[in-house]
Amino acid sequence: MRNKTFLAICAISFILSVSDAIAAPALAVLGRDYEFPNKISGLPAKLSDFKDLEIKFFNTSDGVRLSYWEAGKGKPLIFVPAWSANGAEYVNVLFLLSKQYHVYVLDPRNQGLSQNIDSGMRISRLSMDLKEFTDHIGVKSADYCGWSMGASVLWSYIDLFGINGVRKVIFVDEPPSILTRPGWTEQERLNAAAMADSPQQVLNALTSGAPHPLVERFNAMDSPYYENSKSFARLFIKSDMKYMSLIMYDHASNDWRDVISKKIKVPTAIFTGEYSSYNLPSQRWMASVIPNARLYVYTKEEQGDHFLMFKNPFKFTQDLREFLER
């Protein structure tokens, strides 16, 4: 057993040490197979069933090594994860969508298999990482889906680089402004889904275990799909809160309402749910100010919470395909 473990570590070290353009099957990068706890028809029973899933790496202009997960062929579809999230959590979504699209999930710095570093911890730098990633893979036009903080990265991307190369865009359950601004009316607060007065309050809510609907739904293992993807990610991804927390101060401080209301001129889908009642008014506001935006509100029975992509991947990927092919 020790020899097998040593060989697996050596294999991973070799893969991570070679060229930036390295491509390897996920099985080789992770060093072992994985059997999902729930057997679900239409989804892989083990990691080796997902034969074309690859994990790759590239270096940003400021020298940070980022990882990304890739599968499928066809039109490019790029996912930008939430704070603390990673490509492993998208395993079911990747599997389902790779039958029709060339799907990518970029691990942000300090998340997933990407490098831990204490610099560049701003949403604007993450949007630059996304730009450099699209340049790295040679994509001139793509559909983009940002979940939670990933939506903020896309708003920053559009603010800085415009909508050239953005074919369609999807936002999943992200408040336009996490912090309340002085002098706001209650309606303005609802439109922004502002929930705190300081970034530290947000970080405390996410890490202290204090009661909050988002934290409660994160911990609710009430979906076999979610249980599979979370258990897979927890085994292979070793997150370091010391590094992940660094982005929260900048992330929580941004107000994206002007970008949302004035700069998004491409077909847009917005996904949210009844469990996200604290956020639902803001998602309705977004749909009202983005021209011809499509709003998807999942019911509680449809696992309509902040993690709806992973708790109900068949419905989400079906709705996403329908939107992308309209």
TrEMBL record:
Residues annotated as signal peptide: 1-23
Domain AB hydrolase-1 as annotated: residue spans: 75-225
Source organism, top-level taxon: Bacteria
Ligase among keywords: no
GO MF, any single term: acyltransferase activity
The keyword Nuclease is assigned to this record: no
Keywords assigned: Acyltransferase, Hydrolase, Signal, Transferase
One GO CC term on file: membrane
PANTHER family reported for this sequence: AB HYDROLASE SUPERFAMILY PROTEIN YCLE, MONOACYLGLYCEROL LIPASE
UniProt name for this protein: Hydrolase or acyltransferase, alpha/beta fold family
Organism field: Citrifermentans bemidjiense (strain ATCC BAA-1014 / DSM 16622 / JCM 12645 / Bem) (Geobacter bemidjiensis)
